Amino acid sequence: MSGAIRVVLADDHAVVRKGIREFLEQDGDIKVVAEASDGAQAVALVEEHRPDVVVLDIQMPGVSGIEATRRIKLEHPEVRVLILTAYDDDPYIFALLQAGATGYMLKTADSDQLVQAVRAVHRGEPALDAAVTQKVMRQLVSSRPPGAEGTVEALTDREIEVLRLAARGLTNKAIGQALGISDRTVQGHLANVYGKLSVGSRTEAVTEALRQGWIVIE
What we know:
This protein is 52% helix and 13% strand. By secondary structure, the chain is α/β, with parallel strands linked by helices.
């Protein structure tokens, strides 16, 4: 377990935490190092344990998941935040993504989806529930300012290929294997993409590419 992904789990229902913990630890590569019943406790446990990933609910007593996410990302930007909630309301989704959450999953997800989401955010890759992805895409399309098309520098065919695979959650190594190039070359393509799109993360790059219509979620 020394190389396991270390997780702090926050939910105000003990029975729910027990079930989520069992799901996460079933394959042995994820270890829940601490559990919190509210947002303030989650922030404190992140400070104490310095986990790789925090799995947070939104509605908790005292400090909400939104505020907890803001505090965690401000104090420990290297810690990834995965939201796991029953709420798919637009204000929650966009507030949490803006606060720095890397993933947003609904509690209707099955155990495999949840485990894959933790692994993805640990790699710094976006993990969005399918229903959440649709809401993000609709919001991006509706918020596009008139005349915005064509204002972003176009990507090359190879850069789009790399970004399409990144949107599926593949690592740089896996993308390189799929395209027959080195992971260092993949990293270079992603750096070029970030520069052209004026973004700083895979999540932002994938979101902008979706908005531009360059890729679609399969």
